[in-house]
Design goal:
The protein contains two helices and twelve strands; from the N terminus they run H-E-E-E-E-E-E-E-E-E-E-E-E-H. By secondary structure, the protein is mostly beta strands.
């Protein structure tokens, strides 16, 4: 495990996965948004598995155009994510009710709250100066979003110039991004 982490840290020093050319993996870009327009893959560990998130194109739903992402899990299951930006707000299409939920508001600020399109989930911005330590990086100046779902409460972390970087549940890290596929690292 120690050798695996050393390999990840070494690669992350030079990798630009899902970032602008020349951007160091652990660093964001304060001039960008929390959902920058990046056309590459993002590798995400979730619990004891992982998935690869990739922008695959655009899709029109209810006369609105969304960026379509695939999330291909280690098991082979593929989930779809539809995001769009309008007037500085990031929306996510909710298949349950054929409507949008705000993913990130136009001007995020501490204490701002909202509900999902179906009214079953709630969101609150905790801070814009959050910190998160993962096996790969120690991040700072993160947007921290508390999300309450039917299956539990999660805290999600977003970095300007990169987007989603990790999640915590019950004060334990349950998800984080890596510079290359966890599967590739495990095969080495």
């Amino acid at each position: 495990m120690k050798n695996l982490l050393i390999t990840i840290l070494f690669i992350s020093s030079f990798s630009t996965s899902a970032q602008k050319e020349g951007q160091i993996f652990c660093e964001g870009d304060e001039t960008e948004t929390y959902f920058p327009s990046i056309d590459s893959k993002k590798y995400i560990v979730w619990g004891n598995t992982f998935y690869v998130e990739k922008l695959v194109g655009k899709k029109k739903l209810n006369n609105k155009t969304y960026k379509e992402f695939t999330q291909t899990w280690e098991s082979g299951h593929v989930a779809y994510l539809y995001l769009r930006e309008h007037d500085g707000i990031i929306f996510q299409f909710e298949e349950c009710c054929s409507d949008d939920t705000i993913r990130i508001p136009k001007q995020p600020k501490n204490g701002l709250t909202w509900k999902s399109a179906d009214g079953l989930s709630s969101y609150e911005i905790i801070t814009l100066k959050g910190k998160l330590k993962t096996p790969i990086c120690t991040y700072k100046n993160l947007l921290v979003l508390k999300s309450i779902f039917e299956n539990g409460t999660f805290t999600f972390y977003y970095q300007k110039g990169y987007g989603y970087i990790g999640a915590v549940q019950n004060k334990e890290l349950i998800s984080f991004v890596t510079p290359i596929s966890p599967k590739e690292l495990l095969e080495e």
